[in-house]
Amino acid sequence: MDGKFLTLTTYSFLSPYFSFSTSLFLDRILRRTPVRGSYQLQAQMNRAVYDERTPGALVPTSVAEASRAMAGDTTLSENYAFAGMHHIFDQHVDSAVPRLQFANDDKHLLACCSLDGTLSIMILSPSPPSVKVVLKGHAGPVTDFAWSLSNDVIVSTSKDGTLRIWNTEDGRCIREVRDPEASELLCCTFQPMNNNLTVVGNSKHLLQVVNISTGKKVKGGSSKLTGRVLSMSFDAPGRILWAGDDRGSVFSFLFDMATGKLTKAKRLVVSEGSPICSISARSWISREARDPSLLINACVNKLLLYRVVDNEGTLQLKRSFPIKHGSQPLHSIFCPLMSFRQGACVVTGSEDACVYFFDVERNTKAIVNKLQGHGGPVLDVSFNCDESLLASADSTGMVIIWRREQK
User: How far apart are CA 371 and CA 406, in angstroms?
Assistant: First the structure.
């Protein structure tokens, strides 16, 4: 019920200089104002995207000379040529790694979670790359995780029915929040404008907003889907949340920034009975083109690209790209620098053990590149902030770091 306290376990955290309570520690690090001006500027730009839509291309046009110069003024195929494997991590071998993600605005800090019940934080520089810390505490497979904006904290969900909050410096579990219905927790994400709030999806079809500083559910921050909640993503301003379930539906919710309340807005049936494994939202903004979009993996042997057409998160299919995807929980991403060059690229894992790059502008032969080297279905992919390194994870527990060719 709304406002009900969840079962909560608190772990001590000691600063070298001060002793903080867990709530005060979390409140300070999660509410701190970002110092990255680029993030603040991007958020301000994103707020206008639904109210002042410019018709035209999905991506920057050929006249974007300044933007292309920032990206090296090269073609997508040239930009996404890779020199080969930079490093292979195998600490989770024999257990699938369903998710991995570079830290925000960071070139060398990477994390992943495993069905073996642990998470790893890896550092890729200085060479050789190494495992910085392993996060241990979950009693079941870890299904998802998310970095806080400042990278001080990671939240993780598990089939053991708990949400855990971790300090990324020493790997200590700061807090454990138990699901009141003891259901499996399957996905999570931070509210992008208030990292005190985390949205969690569970196996009993429930989506709920949790204040991780207090361990309390937010009043009005719960809603039911038609199936197990497998994936979710906010738009950049944090006003719209999309969530996908295992019965093929994607729901949009309006998020009240002042109260944390969720209001169900729209529902799209992508494919009846096909699990929505991955949702990735992106507001493509430049001086030449603006087109908020959603990238979806849905076990239909295609990667789906949708356009967001209104303020309630209504989706309209724009493109699809053929991949092998029938049953595995595959994920995909937008390339972080796409708005600075002619053309735009998305990356996805595939059940044929390959990583695929697609140009969303090409009407034919959309494949830009294909990376081979995994021994099983590639479940997730992640670029670092400058696209110099790509990480990919597979069902065998292998994590490969790919180095892009230097031009």
Answer: 17
Write the pLDDT tens digit of every residue in 192-240.
999 999 999 999 999 999 999 999 999 999 999 999 999 999 999 999 9
For 315-383, give the DSSP string.
EEEEEEEE---SSS---EEE-TTGGGSSS-EEEEE-TTSEEEEEETT-SS--EEEEEE--SS-EEEEEE
Segment 361-400, tens digit of pLDDT: 888 889 999 999 999 999 999 999 999 999 999 999 999 9
pTM of the predicted protein model: 0.84
- Whether residue 292 is preceded by a cis peptide bond, meaning omega within 30 degrees of 0, is no
Taken in order 104, 109, 115, 118, the sign of the CA dihedral is negative
Q: 349 near 399, Cβ under 8 Å? A: no
Cis peptide before 98 (omega within 30 of 0): no
What are the residues facing 221 on neighbouring strands?
Answer: none
Residue 37 CA from chain centroid, whole number: 21
SS3 156: strand
The per-residue DSSP string of 11-46 comes to: --EE-SS-EE-HHHHHHHHHHSPP--HHHHHHHHHH
Radius of gyration of the chain (CA): 20
Nearest C-alpha neighbor of 8 from the set 262, 144, 170, 211: 211
Cβ atoms within 10 A of the Cβ of 32, count?
13
For residues 25 and 174, the answer to whether their CB atoms sit within 8 Å is yes
State the DSSP string of 85-113: EEEEE-TTTTS---EEEEPTT-SSEEEEE
